[in-house]
Amino acid sequence: MLAKLSTRPAVRRCAGTGALALTLLGAGLPAADPPQPDLSRFYRQNVTWAACKGTGMPKDLQCGKVTVPLDYARPRAGTLDVALARYRATGKKQGSVLLNFGGPGGAGVPELAADGKEFMDLTNGYDVVTFDPRGVGRSSPVSCGEGSEEASSALDDEAGLAHPQALLARLRKAADDCARHSGPVLPHIGTVNAARDLDVIRQALGDKKLNYLGFSYGTRLGAVYATQFPHKVGRLALDGVDALTEPLSAQGLAAAEGQQTALDDFLDWCTTDVACPFGQDRRTAGDQVVGLVHALDKNPVPTDIGGSFSGQNLVGAIGQALYSKQLWPSLERALASLVQDGDARGVQHFAAGGAGLTLGGHRDGGLVDPQDVPADNLEAALMAIDCADDPDRPGAARIAKDLKSLQTQYEQASPVFGRYRLTEVLMCYGRPKGTDFIRDRVKDVDSARMLLVGTRGDPATPYRWTVETAARLGPSAVVLDNKGDGHTGYTSSTCVHRKVDDFLLYGSLPPNGSSCPADGNDWNVTLNPTN
Prior knowledge:
The chain contains 18 helices and 14 strands.
């Protein structure tokens, strides 16, 4: 809001024998910008690096933190610590490159610890740095307690659809559970604030401009940063580009369709193997998967860490595994153990957070010990960030009216993933309205040129999103067309990997619209993004 100017007295000037009175009215003057909160103490930080805590952490991985305001509009109202990790540059250092692995809700520190070898080429010029965004992992993690399961179970059968008011009451209770378990960070979660955290991190790392590699949801974060800080953009590469304007309901349908296609491809492969737990009849294999999901929703199996593993937990785990064909043999073995022995440990490995008892939120703003991160943090953070980024909040009457048709649409998109994706959309009910910044402001970015990678066979972020987002961002966006399959291209295509590295390390951009061939997909690692 513009500051209101006080009325000023008339100014009288005389020239010769005449006088001209000039009255300066407040309405006729340009209004001054409101005073900005003083953030200087956050921008004066330096990161103190030390060995990372936690079992299995690589010895050469270092961890640190930066402190950011809980609320950028009121920086004195509280702070939180954002967890960082880095591999130091081995060549001549030209700064840092910051990685976000996606989600939303994916924690960067454990991801870099697990798959850091895929980014070692970048250490030829950079410290390779990642972080747990606010509300995620060690950075004041959010949790919903039993709230997520409460809302998900409401769609188990036709009873939820026949009594939409009861469903809405359970969704509102789930939102209240999330607020109660998450603490003060929840109202300040979301990409707009996370992008501001990125700029504090950039300064703390000693970089004049941000060099960045974002995957899946991380592309949304990169685009928001470029909009907020266009003159601080260094070299930004966005891989598996997210939608900026589609509402969550449309994004959910696209994701369900893409994951169903990936599942069909997996079953085509699985049923050619005698070890496939769904047999060799491809016509019935899909029905068996649906039946397995329904059976586990009615009778979840216990887990070793407490709690239980439901059909919707299985759907989430399968969705993660389908992001890369390299994981298909492991998924087949895990499903066989579940079907034949009732052993869910293998599929739990893919669940990126799994099932189990929730440990509760963290409220003092400091870093959380790794073993104290709530088991549902990935899911809770995904819900919170997506809802915070989306301004659409249909009222109770609208949801009740459209619920049946929505379920039909989602189940037609995917009999396996439809309900899972619909639940994610419905979970925003009862939460405060999200920001309209991304939908209204992230466009026509006047920054240094950015590289956008889209993969034709991506089950989570359709290629058309890359084209649409590039057009929205404007001339600064350069598109690389990856003809392969899988979610994101950097760790599955040698061609994409090389072109992204050339850009980040040397500033060499491929021509807009150039492509990488499908037969370049010979890497063996997938990333963890959920979206």
